Amino acid sequence: MHRRAFLEQAGAGLLAGLWPALAQTQGERPNIVLIYADDLGYGDVSCYGARRIKTPNIDRLAASGIRFVHAHSPAATCTPSRYALLTGEYAWRRKGTGVLPGDAALIIEPGRPTLPGVLKRQGYATGVVGKWHLGLGSGNVNWNAEIKPGPLEIGFDYAFIMPATGDRVPCVYVENHRVVNLDPNDPIEVSYEKPFPGEPTGRTHPHLLRMHPSHGHDMAIVNGISRIGYMRGGKKALWKDEEMADVFTEKAIQFIEKHRSGPFFLYFATHDIHVPRVPHPRFAGKSGMGPRGDAILQLDSCVGRILETLDKHGLTRNTLVIFTSDNGPVVDDGYKDEAVEKLGDHKPWGPWRGGKYSIFEAGTRVPFLVRWPARIERRMDSPALISQIDLFHTLAFLTGGKLEDEAAPDSFNLISALLGRDPQGRPHLVEQAGTLSVIVGRWKYVAPSKGPKINKNVNIELGNDPEPQLYDLETDPGERNNVAAQFPDKVAELAALLEQIRRSPRTRP
Ligand code: NG6
Ligand code: CA
Predict the structure, then answer these.
(1) What atom of ligand 1 comes closest to residue 81's alpha carbon?
(2) What is the SS3 assignment for 51?
(3) Neighbours of 179 (CB within 10 A)
């Protein structure tokens, strides 16, 4: 359904009084579970239109919650999205917030206001389980000693993470300050510069691989898969890709059970469906779409286990569950895993143009489901323009937390939109990929940029253009017609707005 149709529906709803009046929602203390999928596209789940793949557990959230259709990740890649999610600041304001190597230093300074920090102050037990990718330590991290600062220094009480990505070394879990299962007699060494002499790599020993790279990913071999970066040692601590989803889900469930008297905030950041896609044998081959589809089934099953845990402990009614993704979809992201060959008519990007890495809508327009039975009485669709960057301010407000003046500079309090009582949401939104764009109402302006138009490795249109682009998302949601030449005043207005947002240190009121 197009935005216009949604707006009509919303308008009719308004007239009919269907958007419930704003109830008292400040100072409540629901448990909060934020499920953050990786690289999952708008069209990858059945409640957003996927046909060949069925995601009954994720659909459960939609069936009794709100399905947002104009919700965005802050950026079209992982690190800047997660940075913005946790700090409430647009990542493009800060250097060094691009996709990080696995040995990068922590990019969120301890002491800064953060989303987990504000909830912790409100008495929440705060935990992160899954993908981190925001750096650890303060440079030259020693994986064999205490690893800090990290999540525990920026507001989490508990952390069970993978440092960066599934395709980046070191391929180990870190629990709080320590690598899990590390044998002190077999220390870990990591380098993003040069190989360790004598260690096989994907480039030198391709015959050792069970999954081959399509581009990049030809360095350290771990579990028969070559990665980005070099490592050696730590053999007992290495993860097994096929167990990762279960390992994370178990830890997430343990966190919920431990804190079931509440309130708790769980940031459950799955590795699925990022590369390398190596789902557990019980999902392998089940989607008919190769490992990418199987990883979606696995992700859905993990969501189901979390929801069952809430049910089992009587927590469902007063737990706010948010399900979303850190950026748009990519089919071939560097491994020959049959994702391209078996895609068929499945459209991971849904009705949008582009994908991961792209300034076109599919780069950041992601699934976004919100369920909270105590406050959201019925299923609905919302056309409100919202960003994950708004969760900081919104959840702080909801739980009665105060924002310091310098906190969360780009985060809007969208509590009314989050609970389905406001169909508008933000007044404007800046999207981030190689360039920036700004959305106001029906209009989207893309700032001129010199980058390539297409990333041939991943076969995604990036949306870069040396000329300004203007799209009418209402009549042209697929961004096919650049109408900049027809509406020069609109172009000037939005270019000026973007410039103003860039220059001022904050956008929130
Ligand atoms: C890219 C990787 C890609 C993925 C991405 C980060 C290559 C050739 N490609 O550089 O595979 O890891 O970084 O993805 O190395 S993200 O979801 O964490 O942003
Ligand atoms: Ca990602």
Answers:
(1) 19
(2) coil
(3) 21
Q: Which ligand is nearest to the Cα of residue 226, counting in written order?
A: 1
φ/ψ of residue 495, rounded to 5: -65, -40
Nearest CA to ligand 1 atom 12: 167
Spatial neighbors of 327 by CB under 8 A, at least 6 apart, are 39, 73, 75, 76, 77, 78, 81, 356, 357, 363, 364, 366
The number of the ligand 1 atom at minimal distance from the alpha carbon of 167 is: 12
Q: What is the pLDDT of residues 177-230, one digit of tens each?
A: 999 999 999 999 999 999 999 999 999 999 999 999 999 999 999 999 999 999
Residues of the chain with pLDDT under 70: 1-25
Residue nearest to atom 3 of ligand 1 (CA): 333
- Domain 429-503 bears CATH identifier 3.30.1120.10: yes
* Ligand 1 closest atom vs CA 99: 19
Name the closest-CA residue to atom 8, ligand 1: 216
Q: What residue ranges do the domains of the chain occupy?
A: 32-179+248-418, 429-503
The topology (CATH level 3) of 32-179+248-418 is Alkaline Phosphatase, subunit A (3.40.720)
At which residue do the structure tokens 């007063």 appear? 318
